Amino acid sequence: MGIINNKATDPNKILPLTYPWAREHYKTGVSNNWVPEEIAMQKDVEQWKSASALSEKERRLILWNLGFFSTAESLTANNIVMAIYRHVTNSEARQYLLRQAYEEAVHTDTFIYCCDTLGLDPDHIYNMYNTIPSIKEKDDFVVNLTESIFDPDFTTAGTANIQRFIHDLIGYYVIMEGIFFYAGFAMMIALRRQNKMVGVGEQFEFIMRDESVHLAFGCDLINTIKKENPGAWSGSFAEQVTDLVRQAVVLEKRYAYDACPDGLLGINADQFSLYVEHIADRRLERIGLSKMYGTENPFPWLSESTDLNKEKNFFETRVTEYQTAGNLVWDD
């Protein structure tokens, strides 16, 4: 019996639980439920249409992030539905994967909602993964990292294949969701702190909160497979994983300097690069590896700004809050 290669899996039988942590992540996801239409965007529309409310640098940063995330969320959903679910054979883990797939659909819908509301050209936004090199490099990197699990003939039988599966899970959860998403989150939430594009910023806050749970589940999944299959986690493989994270940090820094080349009020690409190093260290430690950079978090306000238990004016928007926000340990 195990979380993979469990031929006795009964999709209708979750109890008794084998992995309570998977069930807890599912319950947290349900409690965190939201949809983009709950967030008011009128002020964002006014600022976007104004000739003076946003600088060209700020507009560039916003477009770069919408361009990256609009396709990245679809990429992550494809990984879950078409690949990971097939190989993770434990029932409660699969239940969480279904919940995560729904959340990825909500995130994809969020960028449709943002583009429609702001009147953006969808062909421009949804093709930026082809036209903007720093975005394309990140997407290509993850696609190359997750090739095995999309192979219809791939199985997780045997140590070599289990190792390959862990490799691909790290590419998806640790690098894509755990590193590549976070500079963009910081950029948009930093703008929101300056009272600019507050609706889009709040959408990003909700997505970031969801992603912290995705990341926690992914790391628990990776660590469980490691524990159950210790032969797959060799010293040379651990070095390979560390090198992949190092490469991912280089790409994410390149994207940060591309999206925010000259800096904005109170934020700049150097700070975003330090933040990427900080979260990369945390990701490495989360899967049992030594940190690489030793960089302090340059944005201590970031976890503060994502406390979504907030009061709102009833006549402006619905109150949108997480039912169990206090129960979730924030993973920045």
CATH architectural arrangement: Orthogonal Bundle
| Cα-to-Cα separation, first versus last residue | 33 Å
Helical stretch tally: 13
Radius of gyration: 20 Å
Helix content: 55-70%
Q: What is the third-level CATH name, the topology? A: Ribonucleotide Reductase, subunit A
Largest sheet: none
Q: Using DSSP, what is the number of strands?
A: 0
Task: Provide mean pLDDT, rounded.
Answer: 87
Structure characterization notes:
There is one protein chain. With 332 residues, this protein is mostly helical. It has a single domain, classed as Ribonucleotide Reductase, subunit A, CATH 1.10.620. 64% of the residues lie in helices and 0% in strands. The chain contains 13 helices and no strands. It is globular and about 60 Å long. The model is unreliable at 306-320 and 324-330 (pLDDT under 50).
Kindly list the characteristics that best describe this protein:
single chain; 332 residues; mainly alpha; Ribonucleotide Reductase, subunit A; 13 helices; disordered C terminus
